[in-house]
């Protein structure tokens, strides 16, 4: 596939890195020559210095031959303009990053599509949706829903109270025959394991599980976790993520939002009628005490600074908060933050890149997520009639060792996969895969 990416910022660079390993013909276009030199020295792709809103530069980037044009510069106006121009020049499919909720209103979205913008992506909205999802399912990490919640994928840490600690997958399967779930991966320190029957669960493992919604409490008990309801929460940072989260959750729980900028705090107080907005520094221990941090069930740090978010979450945990979520935009900090116990992490660039990535695949992909604390990916793919995945039961298929099928959605039913399961045409299949297996998995679903 020929792909042109406009914008060598965080999202564009990470997306280029993901795609460069998948045999695509990639061109990265940006006005910043230094940024492009940095990318060019690490990745196998073509870089062009130029403006994505310039017809001359778009033509130089061979946009007319592009199967996919992706505009992810820092300027929403540039993204919209360049995407429209790319479509007129001949790009087959176009995607634009936006920063305006107004464009996602159905009639406005339809209008933009008529101009040539096939898909819109709003990273902050994706991030807020993640936060809301995590707060709704206490005790889990990285919660993802498939087909409207018919199947769930989530991460659970194995505690010392877990009854499955030190037991193999096969032993756990025997003792939990009444629990409908499948462990599809284990993150142990810095390594992601695709488990088989002989693999053991160890204390501190982050286990990724696929289950039906009704099984989640039983799975949590197996891992030594207890469900609790988030009734009181505090948000640090009046960013777009913080605002969108507060708008959604303000009527559902007692919510406080801390913002260090006084003028911004006043604006937020008018905007967020159901949230108590406080002007102050969320890293101030005394301020947190005054605002009742010890009464909070959750603490969400979404300032524009990764270090501030990590430190604030650690402080909140030390002061008794059970559930902490940090926006960590520096990818190099993610493993460190996970190892020191920050809690759940969100990253806009990973969310945006994952959302876009599915449009680069040959198979019919409904959802695609690159997991924040793992180097793996989870996808929801539709099995096509006559595809290899439908030819035999899972145990008789030569499915890649570095991938795992967690479950299937068939019409209105959800099924947890076993070796005896046979996938049928039009089934939606939840697959957990390492980067090395993505192309192999695709071939099973073509």
3D architecture notes:
By secondary structure, the chain is α/β, with parallel strands linked by helices. It has 4 domains: about 1-120, Rossmann fold (3-Layer(aba) Sandwich), CATH 3.40.50; about 145-220, 2-Layer Sandwich (Alpha-Beta Plaits), CATH 3.30.70; about 230-320, Rossmann fold (3-Layer(aba) Sandwich), CATH 3.40.50; about 350-445, Alpha-Beta Plaits (2-Layer Sandwich), CATH 3.30.70.1450. The protein is built from 15 helices and 22 strands. The strands form 4 sheets. The chain has a 6-stranded parallel β-sheet, sandwiched between helices.
Task: Throw out a few tags for this protein.
22 strands, 6-stranded parallel sheet, 15 helices, Rossmann fold, 4 domains, alpha/beta, 446 residues, Alpha-Beta Plaits
CATH architecture of the largest domain: 3-Layer(aba) Sandwich
In CATH, what is the class of the largest domain? Alpha Beta
- Total tally of structural domains: 4
Q: Residue share in helices?
A: 25-40%
CATH names the topology of the largest domain as Rossmann fold
Percent in strands: 25-35%
Strand order of the largest sheet: 3-2-1-4-5-6
Q: What is the tally of beta strands?
A: 22
Estimated structural class: alpha/beta
Rg, please? 23 Å
pLDDT below 50 for ≥5 consecutive residues: which ranges? Answer: none
Report the major sheet: 6 strands, parallel
| Span of the ends, CA to CA | 16 Å
Shape descriptor: globular
Give the averaged pLDDT, no decimals. Answer: 90
Number of helices: 15
The CATH superfamily of the largest domain is NAD(P)-binding Rossmann-like Domain
Domain RCK N-terminal: 1-121, 230-351
Domain RCK C-terminal: 141-225, 363-446
Pfam families: TrkA_C, TrkA_N
Keywords: Ion transport, NAD, Potassium, Potassium transport, Transport
């Amino acid at each position: 596939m020929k792909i042109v990416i406009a914008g060598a910022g965080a999202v564009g660079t990470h997306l280029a890195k993901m795609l460069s390993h998948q045999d695509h013909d990639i061109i990265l276009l940006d006005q910043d020559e230094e940024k492009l030199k940095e990318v060019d020295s690490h990745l196998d792709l073509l870089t062009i210095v130029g403006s994505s809103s310039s017809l001359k530069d778009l033509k130089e980037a061979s946009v007319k031959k592009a199967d996919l044009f992706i505009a992810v510069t820092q300027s929403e106006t540039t993204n919209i303009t360049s995407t429209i121009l790319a479509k007129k020049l001949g790009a087959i499919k176009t995607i634009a990053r936006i920063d305006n909720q107004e464009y996602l209103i159905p009639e406005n979205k339809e209008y933009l599509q008529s101009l040539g913008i096939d898909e819109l992506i709003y990273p902050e909205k994706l991030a807020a949706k993640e936060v809301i999802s995590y707060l709704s399912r206490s005790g889990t990490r990285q919660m993802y829903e498939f087909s409207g919640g018919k199947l769930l994928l989530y991460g659970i840490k194995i505690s010392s109270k877990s009854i499955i600690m030190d037991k193999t997958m096969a032993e756990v399967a025997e003792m939990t025959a009444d629990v409908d779930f499948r462990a599809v991966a284990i993150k142990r320190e810095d390594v992601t394991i695709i488990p088989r029957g002989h693999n053991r669960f160890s204390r501190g493992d982050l286990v990724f599980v696929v289950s039906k919604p009704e099984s989640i409490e039983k799975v949590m008990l197996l891992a030594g976790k207890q469900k609790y309801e988030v009734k009181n929460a505090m948000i640090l940072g009046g960013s777009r993520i913080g605002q969108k989260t507060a708008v959604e959750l303000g009527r559902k729980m007692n919510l406080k939002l801390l913002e260090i900028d006084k003028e911004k705090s006043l604006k937020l107080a008018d905007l967020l009628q159901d949230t108590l907005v406080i002007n102050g520094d969320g890293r101030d221990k005394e301020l947190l005490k005054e605002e009742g941090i010890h009464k909070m069930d959750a603490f969400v740090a979404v300032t524009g600074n990764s270090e501030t978010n990590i430190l604030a979450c650690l402080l909140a945990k030390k002061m008794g908060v059970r559930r902490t979520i940090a926006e960590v935009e520096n990818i190099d900090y993610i493993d460190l933050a996970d190892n020191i116990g920050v809690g759940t992490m969100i990253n806009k660039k990973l969310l945006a890149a994952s959302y876009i990535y599915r449009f680069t695949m040959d198979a019919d992909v409904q959802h695609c997520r690159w997991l924040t604390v793992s180097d793996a990916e989870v996808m929801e793919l539709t099995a096509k009639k006559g595809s290899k995945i439908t030819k035999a039961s899972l145990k008789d298929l030569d499915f890649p060792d570095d991938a795992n099928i967690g479950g299937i959605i068939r019409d209105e039913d959800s099924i947890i996969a076993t070796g005896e399961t046979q996938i049928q045409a039009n089934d939606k299949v939840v697959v957990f895969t390492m980067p090395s297996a993505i192309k192999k998995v695709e071939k099973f679903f073509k």
